[in-house]
Amino acid sequence: MPSYVIAGASLAGAKAAETLRDEGFDGDIVLIGAEAERPYERPPLSKGYLLGSDSQDSVYVHAADWYAEHGVDLREGVTVTAIDRGARTVATSSGAQVSYDKLLLATGASPRRLDFPGSDREEVLYLRTIADSDRLRSAFQPGTRVVVAGAGWIGLETTAAARTAECTVTVLEPQPGALHDQLGPELGAVFAELHRAHGVEFRFGERAVEFRPGMVITSDGAEIPADVLVVGIGAAPNDDLAAQIGLETGNGVLTDEALRTSDPDIFAAGDVANSFNPLLGRRVRVEHWANALNGGPAAARSMLGQPVRYDQVPYFYSD
Q1: What is the model's pLDDT at position 74?
Q2: Cα–Cα distances in Å, from 274 out to 71, 284, 297?
Q3: What is the pLDDT of residues 1-24, one digit of tens each?
Q4: What's residue 46's pLDDT?
Q5: CATH says 113-231 is which class?
Q6: Of the CATH numbers 3.40.190.10, 3.30.1060.10, 3.40.50.720, 3.50.50.60, which one belongs to the domain with range 3-110+235-303?
Q7: Long-range contacts at 78-85 (CB < 8 A, ≥ 24 apart)
């Protein structure tokens, strides 16, 4: 009986497993996830869940019993530590060796981290997981002084949540405006003015260079009162495993329009995939919910040998 292994119990990985079953695949499906949680969607972590308006149950991709009912071997709190392309096996952190006929890499991305004096303190927070969102929600209390590093999507959404919780917020951004790389100066200015109208202070052209208890030091030497530093400076694809086994990589795992990597038995989807988009005529790596939602099923169909042309138009949304 064929065995399909999915490395990454993410939205992309979970939707790939669902699609394999919907398309009639009756072989083994092993879904391996690093977190001690079943697959969930990440947008609420900086939106409704962070604000406390969405329950934790609402973020999960499937009900708790869905995986057992559909014969999906979900392994939580386990990572893939090595891949043997010749033997077609993956090694996991639990010590298991799992054979595969087809392998999907849905390992996502990790927040880029700051490295300066004090950046390892517990008051320096990131956002990627449910646990991260829980820590931010606990920190966002009335009167808390919050400094946010980065005026991108995550930075501005956490800023909005902090202001909703009646925190004071200062945003540091080395670029000349908010959402500068994502939207450009004109639309970025609209978002910046929206936040200013809600009491947010921006310091453009500055970045955090040190965190001390109660204070962030900026690149201009300013001392900003801060109980918490929230870091939202982008994410890096988790493509180390792919690079180690000789797959073609470059800002993610390179794939064709069918989400196949340079190994015909290995596929990639979601944040980690840098895929050729026929509409754009070039590869693009998209860190967004819709890409995971659509890319996982497309990869599953490609794994089954169906003709796939993944040509979704990338888009983003924000609260």
Answers
A1: 98
A2: 30, 5, 16
A3: 899 999 999 999 999 999 999 999
A4: 96
A5: alpha beta
A6: 3.50.50.60
A7: 78/32, 78/33, 78/34, 79/32, 79/34, 80/7, 80/32, 80/107, 80/241, 82/241, 82/244, 83/241, 83/244, 83/245, 83/266, 84/245, 85/245, 85/246, 85/263, 85/265, 85/266
From CA 97, how far away is CA 99, in angstroms rounded?
7
In the chain, which residues have pLDDT < 70?
A: none
How many residues are present in the chain? 319
pLDDT at 316: 84
Give the closest residue to 5 by CA, choosing from 131, 100, 126, 145.
100
Tokens 């308006």 belong to residue: 53
Task: Report the half-sphere exposure of 292 (CA within 13 A, side-chain side).
Answer: 24
The residue extents of the domains of the chain are 3-110+235-303, 113-231
User: Do 102 and 267 form a contact (C-beta atoms < 8 A)?
Assistant: yes
For the record, the structure tokens of 38 come out as: 């079943």
- pTM confidence score: 0.95
> Can you tell me the distance from the alpha carbon of 211 to that of 175, in angstroms, rounded to the nearest whole number?
20
3-state helix, strand and coil shares in percent for the chain, rounded to the nearest 5: 30, 25, 45
